Amino acid sequence: MRIFTKKLPHPDLPAEEKAQLLQNSEYQEMMVESTFMYLTLDLPTAPLYKDEKEQLIIPQVPLFSILAKFNGATEKEYKTYKENFLKRFQLTKLPPYLIFCIKRFTKNNFFVEKNPTIVNFPITNVDLREDLSEERGWPPSPQWSPLSPPVPSQGTGKWYELQDLQVTDILPQMITLSEAYIQV
């Protein structure tokens, strides 16, 4: 993948000083190519309130919405202790197996929270052509199957969900309802 990074001036600086800093070479966009072992996907923030019927909402998001992070155009701000950066990512080539690490957990001062958002994804024929850069093209096999935290048994065709050391049968219709944080 290509990673484009641009350093941002401190937001409290006057506009004139920001404009001057943006002319410096350290504030220009830099691009590096990097290999990856997995893609980290960011979930939208879960809603804080109940819906109009006073029932809890379980939010859902399509896989391709959170994969937009890797389209080469979507920018996200990353903050460190001293500096802020604007980054965007562009997939150039895909490996034979793709691992998604879904960021479900956030820490605050007191505890770790789990985001219950369900990621809707197709079980078969996952097509990522639109997320690859045009000049590199698509690998020989444009569709992958399956994409899920459960795995199918080659002999029986049954699906199994893997959670730590526990393996259980699961219906194919239930696969997309899992709150997985790793999908292969």
- The Rg value, from CA coordinates, equals 20 Å
Mean pLDDT score, rounded? 78
The proportion of strand residues reads 25-35%
Taken in chain order, the helices and strands follow as: EHEEEHEEEEEEEEEEEE
Q: What is the percent of helical residues?
A: under 10%
Distance between the termini: 18 Å
Classification by helices and strands: mainly beta
Shape: globular
List segments where confidence is low: pLDDT < 50 over at least 5 consecutive residues: 136-148
H/I helix tally: 2
Largest sheet: 4 strands, antiparallel
What count of domains describes the coordinates?
Answer: 1
Q: Please provide the count of β strands.
A: 16
For the largest sheet, list the strands in their spatial order. Answer: 2-1-6-5
InterPro entries: Papain-like_cys_pep_sf, Peptidase_C19_UCH, Ub_carboxyl-term_hydrolase
Keywords: Hydrolase
Enzyme class: hydrolase
Organism: Pedionomus torquatus
What report would you give on this structure?
It is a single chain. The chain is mainly beta. It is 6% helix and 33% strand. The chain has two helices and 16 strands. The chain has helices at residues 15-21, 63-66, and strands at residues 2-8, 30-33, 39-42, 60-62, 76-79, 84-90, 100-103, 105-107, 112-114, 118-120, 126-127, 143-144, 151-152, 159-163, 166-170, 182-183. The strands form six sheets. Strands 2-1-6-5 form a four-stranded antiparallel sheet, with no helix packed on it. A three-stranded mixed sheet has the order 3-7-16, with no helix packed on it. A three-stranded antiparallel sheet has the order 13-14-15, with no helix packed on it. The longest helix has 7 residues, at 15-21. The radius of gyration is 20 Å and the shape is globular. Residues 136-148 have low confidence and may be disordered. This is ubiquitinyl hydrolase 1. Residues 70-135 form the Peptidase C19 ubiquitin carboxyl-terminal hydrolase domain. Its EC number is 3.4.19.12. GO terms for molecular function: cysteine-type deubiquitinase activity.
